[in-house]
UniProtKB/TrEMBL annotation:
Protein name listed in UniProt: Uncharacterized protein
Signal peptide interval: none
Keywords: Membrane, Transmembrane, Transmembrane helix
Organism the protein comes from: Candidatus Iainarchaeum sp
Transmembrane residue ranges: 12-33, 39-61, 73-98, 104-126, 138-156, 176-194, 206-224, 230-252
Amino acid sequence: MSTFLRDPQRLMPWFIALAVVVHISLQILSFGLDVSENSIVASLIYLVAGFLFFLVAAYWLEQGVQNASRQYLLMGLGMTALFVTLALVGLGLLGTFGPVKGKLLNTGLFLLLIGAGTAGVFWIASPSTRKLTSGKQKIVLALVFFILFVSGLSALQNVLPNLYAGYGLPSLLRQQLVTIVLILFTLGAVRFALSEWGKETFSGQWFLIGIMMISLTFLNLLLSTMPGDIYSWAGRLLLILSAGAFIQSVWWHDRAVV
């Protein structure tokens, strides 16, 4: 098993094949199984995923400042965008910001899509050998801007367009936004695949696998038909698995540095 984990390139084909089989199977099963939505369990999944992304973000931001690395800084900022939005969505589902109703859930999905899209943009731009001259200032400015933007969006929840049609079915706007996020993640994965091609950097390869796994989360969101079905629950669990891949990338990078 240790050899398998040490060679992500050998893992990728098996992972892709398994993901396709699982997605097709769960999509079929979701039509025959009645699984209800549970906001508390969903909240815990988002909060755990957010905490794991926070750990990864803190590591890459620290590496970006210490090494004056543009790539590490952008990797960390992408993680930060995800953990902030996942934390807000998780807290929202616990009722922290008011009753868990349609408008709050709609705002939470907007936050998740914006955080994921922001992460995708950062990851597309991150493969680079350029050095930074003011890493700390850029981190502070980026975080302040993002937090202010997210806070402003939360305050405007009454005027946001509805991402769900009747009976919880997805609206056309929701599907378009999720597709945009998927495209951004795909481009980010392609950039990392090209930058890591032929290299024996297990850290970069695991980061690529993490991007691929979180892409599957949003593919799941695109294809899920009803909130709370078994297929949508599987997508939430994919968040945890993607966080595990990102932590694996941190572990290999830290081991190489030491």
